[in-house]
Please model this.
Amino acid sequence: MARKDREQNRRSWNAATVAHNSHKRDQASFLKRAGTLFPEELGLLGPLRGKTLLHLQCNSGQDTLSLARRGARVTGVDISDEAITFAQALSCDSRIPGRFVRADVYDYLTAKRPTFDVVFCSYGVTGWLEDLDRWAQGIARRLRRGGRFVYVEFHPVVFTFDECGRPAFPYSTHGAPLRGPGVTDYVQASGPALAPSGYVAGVRDFTNPHGAVEFAWGLSEIVQAVIDAGLHVDHLEEYPWSNGFAPFEGMRRRGARYFPAPGQPQVPLMFSLRAVKR
Ligand SMILES: C[S@@+](CC[C@H](N)C(=O)[O-])C[C@H]1O[C@@H](n2cnc3c(N)ncnc32)[C@H](O)[C@@H]1O
Model:
């Protein structure tokens, strides 16, 4: 993938991030009293007090600051200018300390220092990455010895179906790019499940003027890249629900979790992975 494709994704995320945040009521006040993290990542992350934590592809920093609320010293990295500017303002307004860096993940992971106790990323990550080996090697480089990598993600099999649950797309393109219409206003589509501070109408009828370049990676390709980077995988789990995001129309919602309705694909909808640098 050429850098110009990643720059296109940067523009696409800049535009979509404005729309996404427009639907979320007073996020600073919300973060002062609660967090945005789900039980799956909290369980895998364990106690965070005093730990240094790198959050890759952190978008507008809501999860990053939620990790900081738990005592971690956080650094969030994202390619989107809009997301990082928003995250920095959210940190100021909520008075929750966090460091936010606007960078391409591949550039950031090239450097050896600083190293972190924990590297974390979640929900919508590898679909933007053209080289999983370089990504996983960079994560291994940025972990201190004994440090943990925690990753919670929508299951790749979900994206083989269209919104009606019909088989429609390849499971993996093995690194070949998929050029599409751009990042959508999926916060509007999900509603309150993705707006824990309260949902407001915000931007209406969002159409992204910038297309996007994505990738479909299979589960074994992701896990193998982590193993090949020398990290010891000690946890891999698949879940029959999806946090905050309904891939199919008419799914059943319980809290922020979506479950397939009868007749919809009964497949794993998320997975989680934890790996240790020995
Ligand atoms: C679905 S969002 C992840 C949201 C995240 N789970 C959170 O905490 O809100 C994907 C993010 O990846 C970022 N991204 C895409 N390509 C990137 C790259 N090459 N380097 C860094 N960030 C990238 C986008 O800007 C976007 O914020």
Remarks:
- Residues 6, 9, 13, 57-59, 62-63, 78-80, 83, 104-105, 122-124, 128 surround S-adenosylmethionine (CB under 6 Å).
- The longest helix spans residues 3-22.
- The first strand starts at residue 52 and ends at 56.
- The chain has a mean pLDDT of 96.
